[in-house]
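Inverse folding, one chain.
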């Protein structure tokens, strides 16, 4: 039995990046052998085990055979006879198909180290095209490592384009597409991710409306916004994703939320930014407009919505916008108004709501004419 460090850990170590998680492949072993050593199997049909102490993942060397459509239509085959080279061959990119032995030596049958040095993302074999999820994965890797000068190999780009043109992305579930978006948002390279997909003709999988609107100006705008967010250590996915949809209509955003099954909080902030951006950043906000905005956001019971929206507007502006401080002061003052003070005055029923509205409006008039 031989154990090798594989995949992203080897790749990122060679690139001098922080290694976040380590995966291992075990060659020449059976499930029974690992179980006897205290490893815990994950799932029934997938040969992945958790180390008894570190809880890191150890997978038996395996091959995959395509059977059916989509990214789930694979049969996993594993035995003690599967070689390390066989296991590495099933991987997507050469830079992800490098293994490292205990003595530090590399096993690199497909030229991954050279491609790393040359900053090239290249598919390992023609079997790459059997998995449509790899379109999004390669776009994500190209985005993540764009700052290092990585590009997609011409032959891989051609293969990806052919897969897109065959409609392979249509076999992916909405939830799986969102998961890849989420990972790219975590990488801090979402503008690059969208741009690579646009170049491949694959941006429709995220949003047909965004694909139709995509151009270099929008790409540069989003790069600037995400750079600002990174400089301020802003990582909230709802806030970051809303930047990408801020140029769309409300109907487009709702359609996108169905296409890739956006979580409710992500969809809601995108819609709120769309609905209130013009009002809150206007040079002349009226007290009535601000009250309507606050009521629609339910500021009085959900103040975090307004706070999140102001931060989203700051990122969109790539800096604190002119109205922000005054908006915070005005709404903080308005939030001190509560129904009890009107009840104490003998006001009842629907008149309490009217009194609340009038009192809040008067406060807003002190700040915005």
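Residues assigned per position:
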């Amino acid at each position: 039995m031989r154990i090798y460090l594989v995949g992203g850990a080897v790749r990122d170590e060679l690139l001098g990046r922080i290694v976040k998680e380590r995966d291992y492949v075990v060659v020449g072993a059976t499930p029974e052998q690992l179980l006897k050593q205290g490893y815990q199997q994950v799932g029934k049909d997938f040969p992945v085990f958790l180390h008894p102490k570190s809880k890191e993942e150890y997978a038996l060397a395996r091959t995959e055979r395509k059977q059916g459509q989509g990214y789930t239509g694979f049969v996993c085959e594993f035995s003690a006879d599967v070689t390390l080279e066989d296991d590495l061959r099933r991987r997507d990119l050469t830079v992800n198909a490098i293994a490292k032995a205990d003595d530090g030596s590399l096993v690199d049958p497909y030229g991954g180290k050279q491609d790393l040095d040359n900053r090239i993302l290249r598919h390992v074999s023609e079997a790459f095209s059997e998995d449509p999820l790899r379109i999004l994965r390669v776009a994500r890797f190209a985005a993540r490592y764009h700052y290092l000068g990585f590009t997609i190999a011409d032959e891989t780009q051609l293969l990806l384009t052919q897969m897109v043109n065959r409609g392979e992305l249509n076999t992916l579930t909405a939830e799986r597409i969102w998961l890849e978006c989420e990972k790219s948002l975590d990488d801090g390279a979402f503008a690059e991710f969208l741009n690579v997909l646009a170049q491949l003709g694959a941006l429709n999988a995220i949003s047909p409306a965004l694909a139709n609107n995509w151009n270099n100006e929008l790409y540069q705008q989003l790069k600037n916004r995400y750079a600002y967010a990174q400089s301020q250590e802003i990582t909230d996915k709802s806030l970051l994703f809303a930047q990408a949809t801020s140029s769309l209509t409300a109907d487009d955003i709702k359609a996108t939320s169905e296409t890739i099954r956006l979580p409710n909080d992500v969809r809601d902030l995108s819609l709120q930014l769309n609905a209130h951006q013009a009002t809150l950043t206007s040079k002349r906000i009226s007290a009535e407009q601000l009250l309507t905005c606050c009521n629609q956001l339910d500021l009085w019971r959900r103040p975090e919505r307004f706070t999140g929206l102001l931060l989203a507007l700051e990122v969109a502006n790539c800096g604190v916008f002119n109205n922000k401080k005054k908006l915070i002061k005005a709404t903080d003052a308005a939030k001190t108004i509560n129904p009890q003070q009107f009840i104490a005055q003998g006001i009842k029923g629907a008149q309490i709501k009217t009194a609340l509205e009038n009192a809040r409006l008067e406060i807003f008039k002190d700040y915005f004419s």
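The chain has 18 helices and eleven strands. The chain has a mean pLDDT of 93.
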